[in-house]
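[agent] plan:
  1. take the single chain provided in the ticket
  2. run structure prediction with default settings
  3. attach structure tokens to the ticket
  4. add a short note for the reviewer (M.T.)
[agent] executing step 1
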Amino acid sequence: QVQLVESGGGLVQAGDSLRLSCAASGRTFSNYAMGWFRQAPGKEREFVAAITWSGRSTYYADSVKGRFTISRDNAKNTVYLQMNSLKPEDPANYYCAAPDLPFGLRTSAFTTGAYRYWGQGTQVTVSS
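[agent] step 2 finished; step 3 output follows
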């Protein structure tokens, strides 16, 4: 059973930084791409960042490019999302996601359909 557990959310001021973590269990973590999505109240879940199984390639939404960094530590079965220069438009529940297909994705990494497993989310709040 694949489990994803996010942590690291909280309340910060605009311009501050946060690092989210997602601990994975239940299978060989290093064989799978990972993604981060976010969902604000009343809005659809949107792509934030993704990283390939090897960690060699990363992908970002335009809205976070240059501010957020996704990384992974396969020894710790953990994927991270370093969020810098947080803005008032960044608050949301942040979810990590994992696909069912090893060494790739069934569809675009930018879509929720590429991922089968989801964590419970961690809340990020930004005060201006």
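[agent] step 4 note for reviewer: The chain has a mean pLDDT of 95.
[agent] ticket updated
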